[in-house]
Amino acid sequence: MGGGGHLEPLCVEHAGLMARLLDDAEGAHWTAIARPDPRDPVPWVLTRLSKTPACYVVFQGEQPVGYAQLRLEEDVGSPALWLTPSLRQRGHGSRVIRGLAGLAERARLHALVTGIRHGNVASRAAFQRCGWAETDWRVGAPFSDCGIWAMAVNGAASRSALNLAALRFYRASAPLLGLHLHAAVP
């Protein structure tokens, strides 16, 4: 990840850490990350370890500063991340996004797709700085206030290729996530 930051695979030993780290996330609008129960965070970690997303604790030096995950469907990945509020807008998000893109490249994925809430200006800017573009696809409730963003893992891709990656990912994951796809442009 560079800049002294790194992604460490989530493990059961991180349960208490994750409960403390994500404690102030209640007011945040989450698109793909549930909060652990602070009284018993182990089931939250075990659920993450037993499902498709690869999950990580984000560190800056030795300090844990966030959580990230990378869901895989077909040859497309979908990252989600959360950073400690006091460390936002300092470049950490861009480093995490690039770190997740590196993991996707090593996994030989063709594209990455994610939903970003329209009001989350800082996140949209961070993804755009990392080479992502908003696609023409929209997802129904509960994520109807999100734009669907995508990037080609190995080099540039046309807008139609990014739209296709978004369609393939969400078509494969819609039953799991309870989503309904809507095309903004036919």
Task: Describe the structure concisely for a colleague.
This protein is α+β, with helices and mostly antiparallel strands. The protein contains five helices and nine strands; from the N terminus they run βααβββαβαβββαβ. The strands form two sheets. It has a seven-stranded mixed sheet with strand order 1-2-3-4-5-8-6, sandwiched between helices. Strands 7-9 form a two-stranded antiparallel sheet.
| Helix count from the secondary structure assignment | 5
Strand content: 25-35%
Shape field: globular
Helix content percent band: 25-40%
Provide mean pLDDT, rounded.
Answer: 78
What is Rg?
Answer: 16 Å
* End-to-end separation: 38 Å
The spatial strand order of the largest sheet comes to: 1-2-3-4-5-8-6
- Helix/strand order: EHHEEEHEHEEEHE
The number of E-state strands comes to 9
Estimated structural class:
alpha+beta
> What characterizes the major β-sheet?
7 strands, mixed
The parts where pLDDT drops under 50 for at least 5 residues are: none
Keywords for this entry:
186 residues, alpha+beta, seven-stranded mixed beta sheet, two-stranded antiparallel sheet, 5 helices, globular
Question: How would you characterize the overall build of this protein?
Answer:
The structure is a single chain. The chain has five helices and nine strands, in the order E-H-H-E-E-E-H-E-H-E-E-E-H-E. A seven-stranded mixed β-sheet has the order 1-2-3-4-5-8-6, sandwiched between helices. Strand 3 and strand 4 form a beta hairpin. The model has no long low-confidence stretch (mean pLDDT 78).
